[in-house]
Amino acid sequence: MGSNKLHKVQKHVQKKKGKNPNLHENSRDTQRLQRASARDDKVNRLTAIREKQNRPYLLRVKYFQTCAESRGWGTFTTPETQILIDGYLQRDNEELAAIQAERRPGRPPSTRETLLKQAQAQEQGEYISGYWVPHLEDAETLKQLKDWSGQWSGLNQLKFIRVTKEGVRKESAFPPKGLS
Predict the structure, then answer these.
(1) What global pTM score does this model have?
(2) What pLDDT, in 10s, does the model give residues 114-166?
(3) 42 is a domain residue
(4) How is the beta sheet containing 160-163 ordered, strand by strand?
(5) Distance CA 39, CA 100 (A)
(6) Could you give the percent of the chain with pLDDT greater than 70?
(7) Residue 180 β-bridge partners
(8) CATH code, 118
């Protein structure tokens, strides 16, 4: 996917120079190949960064898809959605407790423990201001969630809301930005 430009340039140089091209170190063709390679590296790097940023949201939507499936794709009320959110926020508690139990007294927390605590604190903060979830009270959204294949690009079809810890429900947008 990402090496498309490089492949085109390689193909063009090969067509022009023959099967075994001997390129001069600073020739135009060598520079074109280097630019195409750098461009493809940049695209691949940015794609990897974007996928890493989107992964938590994909896992979150997958969790709610699984919950809706186990319930038979019926709609949820706001308190039921809050129960699901609480369950999702506690998903790492067992791992965190195990890590803390195996740590010797007086030792600093491991990197994994610190990361889990930071992620939990960040998600708790998001829940206080409004946790971004699929609109599980909307039958059409549930139908689309049922057909969702797990890809980021498929999420733009779904409706999203933000649910606060107090139970206030606000409309939201995709992709999640700030408190939208």
Answers:
(1) 0.74
(2) 999 999 999 999 999 889 999 999 889 999 999 998 888 888 889 999 999 89
(3) no
(4) 131-134, 160-163, 169-172
(5) 45
(6) 94
(7) none
(8) 1.20.1440.170
Is there a domain that residue 154 lies in?
yes
Helix H or strand E segment including 163: strand 160-163
Confidence of residue 49 (pLDDT cuts 50, 70, 90): very high
Collapsed DSSP state (helix, strand, coil) of residue 73 = coil
Full residue range of the structural domain in which residue 118 is found = 57-172
Q: Evaluate whether residue 16 is within a structural domain.
A: no
Contact criterion met (CB below 8 Å) for 131 and 169: no
| Complete DSSP assignment for 93-139 | HHHHHHHHHHSPTTPPPPHHHHHHHHHHHHHHHHHHH-EEEE-TT-H
Number of domains in the chain: 1
Instruction: For CA atoms 98, 104, 109, 111, give the dihedral sign.
Output: negative
Q: How far apart are CA 54 and CA 108, in angstroms?
A: 30
Calculate mean pLDDT across residues 93-109: 90
**149 half-sphere exposure, CB direction, 13 A CA radius:** 4
